[in-house]
Amino acid sequence: xxxxxxxxxxxxxxxxxxxxxxxxxxxxFECNMKCEYCFYHQLEESHQSMxxxxxxxxxxxxxxxxxxxPMVNFIWHGGEPLVVGKKFYQKVVELQKKxxxxxxxxxxxxxxxxxxxxxxxxxxxxxxxxxxxxISLDGPPEYHDLYRxxxxxxxxxxxxxxxxxxxxxNDIPFGIVSVITDVSVYSPERMFRFFVENELYDIKxxxxxxxxxxxxxxxxxxxxxxxxxNFLLQILELWLEEDNPQLKITPINEIFISLLRGxxxxxxxxxxxxxxxxxxxxxxxxHACISEGIGEKWCFGNIxxxxxxxxxxxxxxxxQEMVTDLRKSCLKCKWYNICKGGCTIDYELExxxxxxxxxxxxxxxxxxxxxxxxxxxxGLV
Length: 381
Fold this sequence. Notes:
Layout: E1 21-25, H1 52-65, E2 71-77, H2 86-99, E3 106-113, H3 120-129, E4 132-136, H4 141-147, H5 157-169, E5 174-180, H6 188-197, E6 202-207, H7 225-242, E7 248-250, H8 252-261, E8 277-280, E9 285-288, E10 299-302, H9 307-311, H10 314-326, H11 336-339, H12 349-352, H13 361-377
Parallel strand pairs: 1-2, 1-8, 2-3, 3-4, 4-5, 5-6, 6-7
Antiparallel strand pairs: 8-9, 9-10
Helix pairs in contact: 1-2, 7-13, 8-13
């Protein structure tokens, strides 16, 4: 999600009154695909789309809550957010202009799509309204089509690449979110070369998540933390060997930037600002971003009640306390200023609530150590 939380020019978002970044599930679970690792398959299907009343309340509250920030971020997510249609986003832009009253705040719309529905009309809209696009692409076809398929089983790789071609033809910048699975985790060089050879230079690697709700075992598509760590360590080496300043790989770039700065950067993974990222569902209900896949847990209320009401709710207060409590054991760690305890979703609280540990802790310690060794080798620290 933090793929879209960026600097624009020389501006960096300031700490001010409590502001939030909405991750907007404008179509709920609705999607034209049926990816095997999508956690929505474990939940009751819902095809409710966000109505205009909820949309207007959301946009109004987002500007009000971020009134002292130079930038206001909206992240449009799904399901597949393009399913809702172009008229919905035309209304989004109209309402953003209405509630950005000073017109001095920069509005950033990030949209994460599977890429299969992109056409010339969508691209015309993206360009006119400066939408930042993220494309889900899990590497070459033998990895991508393994899990990212249509309901009848056909792989989506060719359609995604067609969407990318249309974006490029129209000079629309975009980034890639690539999910690492139980198969691709053993082929870091194949994955790396695929993206470089296709000049896909803005990549974010994420691990496939999923455990059996009865016994906590990892589901077949989910690599374990050690496997994921080995993958990222090899990607780090390949990235350094490539020596291409255009090539940005998250979380590798962020690790080096954070080490050089001596503190965490903009990537939400290492920011310890879990309470700032709010999932907003079609009915206006607002959840913490770690609520993905666990139903009503950590529901702060409804956006129609106003953001001030939500941040003073008992659930929100409890969530903030929980996030802080989880990190108490991290405070003496050498890397704490860099990672801030990592992402709360990686504590996998529905399975390991008593352990209070980030399952990727050792993974990232290995990465921090390797990155620091490289910076020392290059005489940069």
